[in-house]
Design goal:
Number of helices: 2
Organism: Amycolatopsis pretoriensis
Pfam families: DUF6807
Oligomer: single chain
Protein name: Methane oxygenase PmoA
Shape: globular
Structural class: mainly beta
Helix content: under 10%
Strand order of the largest sheet: 10-11-12-13-22-18-17-16
Number of domains: 1
Strand content: over 45%
Length: 306
């Protein structure tokens, strides 16, 4: 177990006996990283973070919702990669709609590179293999998850994925939008919120709401929802990194009929990755208790980007 002292307690990170990595703040599990979930092949198995919790202990993710069982917490994935589906479920096919195909790939843990805590933050690094339904390794990913900047009412996750094309062919990363379906540009880092967040409030850095933020480019987007039982509110602040290609990102976001947000890098057009080429994407998620004002959200986004 690694640990780091922070202002309001000690942040600890450890791989437990069940294979999951848990980040603890005192007795509270802030995040659980599920490395090898028992996901059905048709849901494109991949690691994910669930639960994510606020410093007040509220859970702000959902797992295996009945409407889309492949929506699991916070995960990085692609719906369209040169005909392969690493997202899960059916594939959108131009002129045919969502179609069951034998193309559901997997994203699997290969090896740990480091699990450390120091200077008020914890960080894990590992290598992953993106394999097609036929077992071909198309991408090698080096992923870094950094947990830190813990305050009484917020903490920050930074997710960085460095992807290398190991397929010996050009890979085309797209989305249902690039295949002909409007307003379905999901892909990349993707969050599914708890069911009580349905109808929550969406705000972007330039004042857009959920109705007008779909496909819109903005440096950050915030989603505020209310919890059952406690009746408290929590906010997820999603902030793009200025170092990313295509900054600021386009957003895929819905408050109804379910709460979802995606850093939708290929919302408007596909990206091409040549053999041996690398692509690095870094994103920040600030988990906040309450419903901050826009000025506070902008402050948190700027601090995360630093």
């Amino acid at each position: 177990m690694s640990r780091a002292a922070v202002g309001d307690g000690t942040l600890e990170l450890a791989e437990d006996d069940d294979g999951a990595v848990r980040v603890r703040l005192g007795d509270l599990v802030l995040a659980e990283y599920v490395i090898a979930p028992p996901t059905p092949a048709g849901d494109s198995p991949k690691p994910y973070l669930h639960p994510l919790r606020t410093t007040a202990g509220e859970t702000v993710t959902a797992v295996r919702p009945h409407d889309h069982t492949w929506h699991n917490g916070l995960q990085f994935t692609m719906a369209h990669l040169s005909g392969e589906n690493f997202w899960g479920g059916r594939t959108y096919v131009r002129g045919r709609g969502y179609t069951p195909l034998d193309n559901n790939g997997t994203i699997g843990h290969v090896r740990w590179e480091s699990i450390v805590c120091a200077a008020g933050h914890c960080e894990l690094r590992h290598e992953l293999a993106w394999r097609t339904a036929a077992g071909r390794r198309w991408l090698t990913e080096h992923r870094t998850l950094r947990f830190g900047d813990v305050w009484a009412d917020s903490w920050t996750l930074t997710w960085s994925s460095r992807l290398r094309n190991t397929s010996n062919q050009e890979l085309r990363w797209g989305s249902p939008v690039t295949e002909g379906r409007e307003t379905a540009g999901y892909g990349g880092l993707f969050w599914r919120g708890p069911r009580s967040f349905v109808g929550g409030a969406v705000r972007t850095s330039d004042g857009r709401s959920a109705e007008s933020a779909m496909g819109h480019r903005a440096p950050w987007l915030a989603f505020t929802g209310r919890h059952d039982e406690s009746l408290r509110t929590s906010t997820l602040l999603f902030a793009d990194s200025p170092a990313n290609p295509g900054f600021p990102t386009a957003w895929y976001v819905r408050a109804e009929p379910f709460p979802v947000v995606s850093f939708a890098a290929t919302y408007h057009r596909p990206w091409l990755l040549e053999p041996g080429e690398e692509l690095t994407l870094t994103h920040h998620v600030v988990v906040v208790d309450g419903d901050p004002q826009p000025a506070r959200l902008a402050e948190l986004a700027a601090r995360a980007a630093e």
